[in-house]
Amino acid sequence: MFKPQLSATDLVNHLNCRHLTNLDRAAAIGTLEAPQQWDPLLKILWERGALHELQYVEHLKNRVANQEHYDSWAAFKVPHHIVQS
């Protein structure tokens, strides 16, 4: 049985065009071939995003390796003299 996994984009697309939902479903189950689009700018954005994610993961690994821990709640602590006012 076909159980689609829908995203927020799928919902927005459905609200804008119900026919698109039928086309997407047909492409997902294989009764219709999905259109092939090539956008070189989209490829560049995808590559930059992937590179950014890799660099961020490395940054996090380095922080853990260097044990750079901090109190994330420190910024939210109210000074003692304000609490007593």
Question: Which features would summarize this protein structure in a list?
Answer:
85 residues, mainly alpha, 60% helix, 0% strand
Description:
The chain has one domain (8-76). Helix content is 60%, strand content 0%. It has 4 helices and no strands. It has helices at residues 8-16, 18-29, 40-65, 80-83. The radius of gyration is 24 Å and the shape is elongated.
How are the SSEs ordered, and which strands pair?
Blueprint: H1 8-16, H2 18-29, H3 40-65, H4 80-83
Structural class: mainly alpha
- Into which percentage range does the β-strand content fall? under 5%
Rough outline: elongated
Give a count of the beta strands, DSSP E runs of length 2 or more: 0
Instruction: Report on the biggest sheet.
Output: none
Kindly state the mean pLDDT as a whole number?
A: 80
Element order, helices and strands? HHHH
Spans of at least 5 consecutive residues with low confidence: none
Cα Rg: 24 Å
Count of discrete alpha- or pi-helical segments spanning 4 or more residues: 4
- Summed up, the domain count is 1
Distance between the termini: 64 Å
Name the helicity range: 55-70%
